[in-house]
């Protein structure tokens, strides 16, 4: 990548669209092969969509299976915060970060449908604003729980039988609108400190959660002007919450069939270069109509030309997803002041 150029980030969705031919028929070996192909192309991360209404394997389980078969690409499952327990959600994401050696994220999602609510029978589906408030509180308590173990809390002293220094475990004592969590976590602090939080901020109800909690915000837009406006709105809101907006990555999410996309992959590469160069977005998150067909073309005919133009990486510069995104590893909120990450 050319020195001084704002980094371009590329990501892709692994799960086929529900209406695509052969959806759900891909083998584990085939999914691993696609993940390795994306990794060879230098993609920042792969997402895997999920919902309670969608048949198929749990996204967290799929990416935990892929993690040992890959070495660098980030792995980001969709995890709904509706009808789930925040304590269990954060533990599962932290475990994925350990399994992948620091390459995990999670795409925060909500479940607004009554059909999904009936699967649990605990409550009716709340309005969208209430769902996203709960999602934000889940993201907040997840960070608290990931930090509830200081980095050096583990002792693992076989001679004395001491596994942890209890003085370096912390109760978070979180009280939210719909749940409370005492803590600490049952999983040691993840390799990244905090796994990467991804939020689809296209819908207005999700933007507050994205501005307050997301490391990566996904947006859909039909023009660079619309995308730039969304990016600016998210940056303003992040600043209002005391965050550095320069640490929020905004990626365009685009659903595409690369055999019918106007102009084909070459046109898509040009669009990415133009929108990124103009400051509208920080990169692209591709949702392929058929990953088995479109991901290889995306890697070869979109990522490849962007790399040739000096806009995209030739090799990974680090080992974690935070490294790929240019994000620092956060210091635990409970660490002594002045401690290094």
What order do the helices and strands come in, and which of them pair?
Layout: E1 9-13, H1 28-40, E2 45-48, H2 59-66, E3 74-80, H3 86-99, E4 105-109, H4 114-120, H5 128-147, E5 154-157, E6 162-164, E7 174-175, E8 180-181, E9 196-200, H6 204-213, E10 216-219, H7 224-240, E11 249-256, H8 264-277, E12 283-288, H9 291-308, H10 321-325
Parallel strand pairs: 1-2, 1-12, 2-3, 3-4, 4-9, 9-10, 10-11, 11-12
Antiparallel strand pairs: 5-6, 7-8
Describe the overall structure.
This protein is α/β, with parallel strands linked by helices. The protein is built from ten helices and twelve strands. The strands form three sheets. Strands 1-2-3-4-9-10-11-12 form an eight-stranded parallel beta barrel, surrounded by eight helices. The chain has a two-stranded antiparallel ribbon with strand order 5-6. β2 (45-48), α2 (59-66) and β3 (74-80) form a beta-alpha-beta unit. The longest helix is centred in the middle third of the chain and has 20 residues, at 128-147. The protein starts with 8 loop residues before the first strand and ends in a 16-residue tail after the last helix. Residues 19-24 have low confidence and may be disordered.
């Amino acid at each position: 990548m050319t020195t001084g150029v704002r980094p371009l980030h590329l990501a892709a969705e692994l799960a086929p669209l529900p209406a695509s031919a052969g959806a759900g028929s891909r083998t584990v070996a085939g999914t691993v092969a696609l993940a390795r192909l994306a990794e060879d192309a230098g993609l920042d991360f792969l997402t895997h969509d999920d919902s309670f209404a969608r048949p198929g394997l749990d996204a967290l389980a799929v990416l935990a299976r892929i993690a040992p078969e890959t070495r660098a690409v980030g792995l980001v499952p969709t995890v709904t915060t509706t009808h789930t327990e925040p304590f269990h959600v954060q533990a599962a994401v932290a475990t994925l970060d350990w399994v992948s050696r620091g390459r995990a994220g999670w795409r925060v999602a909500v479940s607004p449908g009554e059909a999904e609510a009936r699967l649990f029978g605990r409550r009716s589906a709340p309005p969208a604003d209430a769902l996203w408030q709960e999602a934000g509180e889940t993201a907040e308590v997840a960070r608290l729980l990931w930090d509830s173990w200081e980095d050096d809390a583990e002792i693992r002293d076989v001679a004395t039988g001491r596994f942890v220094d209890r003085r370096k475990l912390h109760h978070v004592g979180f009280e939210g609108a719909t749940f409370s969590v005492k803590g600490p976590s049952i999983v040691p602090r993840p390799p990244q400190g905090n796994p990467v939080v991804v939020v689809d901020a296209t819908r207005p109800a999700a933007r507050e959660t994205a501005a307050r909690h997301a490391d990566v915000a996904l947006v859909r837009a039909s023009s660079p002007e619309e995308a730039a406006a969304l990016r600016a709105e998210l940056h303003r809101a992040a600043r209002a919450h005391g965050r550095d907006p320069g640490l929020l990555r905004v990626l365009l999410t685009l659903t595409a069939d690369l055999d019918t996309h106007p102009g084909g992959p070459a046109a898509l590469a040009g669009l990415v270069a133009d929108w990124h160069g103009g400051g509208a977005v920080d990169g692209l998150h591709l949702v392929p109509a058929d990953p088995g067909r479109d991901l290889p073309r995306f890697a070869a005919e979109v990522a490849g030309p962007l790399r040739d133009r000096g806009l995209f990486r030739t090799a990974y510069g680090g080992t974690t997803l935070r490294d790929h995104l240019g994000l620092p590893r956060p210091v635990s909120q409970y660490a002594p002041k002045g401690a290094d990450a």
